[in-house]
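Issue 218. Parser rejects a valid record. Input:
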Amino acid sequence: MAGAIWVVGEAVEGGLARISAEIATLARRLGTESGREAVGIVVGASPGPAAEELATFLPRVIALEHGSAAELAWSTPAASRLVAVLEAEEPALVLVGATPDGRDLAGVLSALLGWGVLGNATGVSWSGDAPSVEMSVFGGRLLTTSAFTHDRGIVILRPGSATAEPAGAPGTVETVATTDSIALPSVAVLERVAEIGAAAPIEEAKVIVAGGRGVGGPEGFAIVEELAERLGGVVGASRAAVDAGWIPYARQIGQTGKVVKPALYVALGISGAIQHKVGMQAAETIVAVNRDPDAPLAEFADLYVVGDLFEIVPAVLAELRARSD
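Output the parser choked on:
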């Protein structure tokens, strides 16, 4: 496979998405393993800030500006600009994040370029002259290893596939002028709903305090929210709590929710079934409180406290208040 390894960076609130920094770090390692160039590319109405941040992880970053209105979905104008550049540069591998926009973009690029896609990847290594892609299947019960049948492809990577580590020296950013290479139908964004009280996107959070069936009801999340606030984190939830209507779906972590990789994950009243585990197992430190000493979460938590969360958490909060006074 000739060509470089490319990373499509996503901008979030003017900066670079955390998942893009993780993928850029992975691409840099793959470049070293394969002897290929690792390149970043950011497409947006104002790609400069995100491109500059991506350049702290990669030696070369391309900034592509599109003039589409904010009311249009990002993936379509991004793909229309990317196609011409990808056809000209002929990278061997394109890496995108497993975000809603990333998945949309990968699908559009695959249709336009005829390249294969491997999704839900948890890691990529270089084997011989081709990438070897690890994917999680059957709710995390099995890991598979796949490769492309042709000499180019797109990989959609889950959060936590790598730990973001800046390069030793910043790279360069080059702005490339291009126009839409193909006319694509516009996808309008009819409404944007901002979650009230969300301190940060849950995928970007360094600290997450999550509640499950054991919190007992929507009023039980008050103590979850208070602990999250004291720790400077955000609130998450298991599917059981979301299905019960106690907390919005945007907070759900797991196979059918968000995949997160915080520095600290506190699980309150969560059993830790495999569907939830696949969404948070990459956390650096996992602390859990549960009445059941045999819950699945006890097998992989760094600290597992057996007891009533409504007795334990208030004691922790009292200690945190005392320390802050």
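Fixed in the parser; the record now loads. The first helix runs from residue 18 to 34.
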